[in-house]
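EI: anyone free to look at a 176-residue chain?
SC: sure, send it
EI:
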Amino acid sequence: MNQRKDTSTFDKNNLYAFSVIVELSHASMKQYPKVIVINLDNFNYFETDKPLLTFKIRDEEGHIESEMYESIHLVLANINNSKYNINKEIKKFASFLKERDLEKLAEEFRGDEKYMAIIRTVEDLTMDEELIGFYSYEEKIRQDKQELEYSKERIREEANLEVAKNLLAMRVLSVE
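SC: here you go
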């Protein structure tokens, strides 16, 4: 689930799913007949009123190309839309996913051992120094590269400006 409104996590998940499909197409499909990606959408990425969307790989005419891949998109903001008959347990799970404050979650789900176990696991994971930011590592590398390129450009501009100043001071160049 993406905590920011950007497409990088969604795109990265789909790229990963497709790479798994390619790997599986070379392996025995008996063990893993299907790849299912479940996206938990906190921002209504597809701007729909539906709480649940399902996608499959299709060709240009809309025919399903492969039964190996399915993407399920759970739109958390729409889970309580009365037009759709959504199971109570899914609604409960969606409300659980929407809350970011672990203390509020613990208060709301006190007594429900299944959810309390999940909350304890999330607390443990958020404290694990090795896991913090692990999923965002590739994004961090991309941002670092962009910052490095920007810094290099700024250094080149400053160097060019310094050369121009020196040439002006030596009267090799005129302002015109």
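EI: Residues 137-169 form the longest helix (33 residues).
SC: 👍
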